[in-house]
Amino acid sequence: MSYVLTPSELETLQARVKGNPFDEHVLEVHFTTTREFLTEVLPPCFTVPEKATGFLQVGRATVSDRSFHSSTIYLSALFEGRPVSYDVTMILNTDMGICFGREMDGECKKQGEIEFDDSQLPTVRGVTTRNGVALMEYVATLGENQGATVRRMHPAHLKAIPNSKFTGLYHHPILVTGDVETTYETFYTGTADLTFRSSETDPCGDIPIESVDEVTYGHGVARWSMGQHPLEDTGDYLPYVLGRSWDLTR
């Protein structure tokens, strides 16, 4: 590979990001939060659902022979009346894993350390750390393997590029939405203890956890497709973009 890709190299790179499946081991811890908090943090393109929920999705995955760990907090929202899951914190442990999703799809990826231990089933435990603070910590206790299961989710990411003085955006923001179907070979449900903490750079501990609800873990293959929805920039999006993806003011 050189500083300028050959046609063959360009074709290979494009093939890698054309919906290749993810082989993943993933834990999800779903929780109830408050509508007041969602009203505070959701960008103007969303409306707040009647039931305020969110979930931590954490695990390890391989795609196109590249492996990484990720830890993401999603919050429930409605976009044009459809339920979606909006990412407010997304920690990865590899540089290219961060660049791909952050620059291409508007995911709020940052670099951190992810300890994810599923070697002692039926217990899954771990901690996600950034700048010396354990932002997300969990211990899940699972039941029996329920076998093959199919699950779907609809993530939504706010894609926007600040100008060089952070006084506005270079272009109107775009909401990138996904349709993700995961076919699990093994699938478990259970219970979990979940703790979020805040640091000077990541306000995870600001998220109210009213209750921990559904807990799932499994090994499967995720296939996805993405769509883009241009948004009208009324000048209201900049604080959401900077607060979610940058460490500027903390």
Based on the coordinates given, report the CATH architecture: Beta Barrel
Mean pLDDT: 94
Q: What does the overall shape look like?
A: globular
Helicity range of the residues?
A: 10-25%
| CATH class group | Mainly Beta
Instruction: Report on the biggest sheet.
Output: 7 strands, mixed, barrel
Strand order of the largest sheet: 1-2-3-4-10-11-12
Number of domains: 1
Q: Tally the beta strands.
A: 12
**Alpha-carbon distance between the termini?**
38 Å
Series of H and E elements: HEHEEEHEEEEEEEEH
Annotated CATH topology: Acetoacetate decarboxylase-like
Structure description:
The protein is mainly beta. It has a single domain, classed as Acetoacetate decarboxylase-like, CATH 2.40.400.10. Helices cover 14% and strands 52% of the residues. The protein contains 4 helices and 12 strands. It has helices spanning 7-16, 35-41, 95-105, 238-245; strands at 22-32, 53-63, 66-79, 82-92, 109-111, 113-120, 123-130, 133-142, 149-153, 155-159, 174-196, 211-230. The protein has a 7-stranded mixed beta barrel. Strand 7 and strand 8 (133-142) form a beta hairpin.
